[in-house]
Predict the structure.
Amino acid sequence: MSDAIKMDCFSFFYEEKPILNNISLTAAKGEYVAVIGPNGAGKSTMLKCINRILRGGSGSIEIFGKNIEQYSQKELGKLVGYVPQTRTHVFPYTVYEFVLMGRYPYLNPLSRISKEDRRIVNEVIEICDISQFFNCPIENLSGGERQKVYLAAALAQQPSILLLDEPTAHLDPKYHMEIQKTISQVSKEMGMTVLHVTHDLNHLLYWSQKVIAMKEGDICFCGVPEGILRDDNLFKAFGTHFLSITHPLDQKNIIIPEVHT
């Protein structure tokens, strides 16, 4: 498999404060990579640098073998979709209007919206199971419903790479599982590369092919999901110990909470 994303000795600073320290990693075409680590580890910053929301830094970032600075914004928008954490700001658009804006890399200011654009928008609305909200204002939706809309807008870009920054954080279990299943299904069917920042340690066993653990701007683990779910590796990343048991159905090791008395 060829590399869809390659970071080589990449560092990034906020006002002279180091956030990413000499990061080197790869994500292959079609690979699902989970990114874990404590708050402040640099996970969200890394995604924003890959998507060029944040510019600058030293070292290099390549998308399909080409430095990201060599892409126009529309070219990059056709390759990379991005779903941020649950937003507190609500946009004054209907669901259809907002998802249609995901087609921006393919539209020109004076061009009309084509039948193909509308077909793709209708398709991703169906995939994300939000057709019942077609003409609803986004502000009238729940947090889980809105997050489905943001995912649909990213998929409307028809990206080869999908960057996810805790897309299911703060959601109830129903929406958590529905959104995760949609992401997993789409990534497999479309051969999409996924870089997914998450705190969900157990489910990464079932949908990721590789795990990257970060701490204080460094990568402290990179390997298969089964390798990270060991107390010694988790302690390196999070600085605390974890308990695990064997799942009764598939015999995988899963994390359980400590008992506090």
Q: What stands out?
A: The chain has one domain: 3-256. The first strand starts at residue 3 and ends at 14. The longest helix spans residues 173-190.
